[in-house]
Amino acid sequence: MTSEMKFDKYFLYGIDNMGGQGNGAPETCSGGQDDPCKNLVGSGKSCCAHVVMTDRGSGTQQSMYRCMNERIVDMSFSIEIDGMSLAMGCS
Fold first, then answer.
1. Is the entire prediction scored with pTM above 0.85?
2. CA distances from 45 to 2, 15, 21 (A)
3. Mean pLDDT, to the nearest integer, of 8-25?
């Protein structure tokens, strides 16, 4: 199972627009008034979350974006999943 799949499984409850193509996740976030997730989901409580996963052993990083509930993103600090530390924030 890839790191991205582990993230999606762990945070399934906080990802908005599940079932959309690629989880409805944009390739990048512009932030501000043109937040693609607020437009895609139609909710002011969603944000385009930039997620950076770092392998604690090798230091390799993976970056991705997800449309998530902004409160989940704000509360999810200092998380580790199977040796990968996570940092995320609304763009």
1. no
2. 28, 11, 20
3. 60
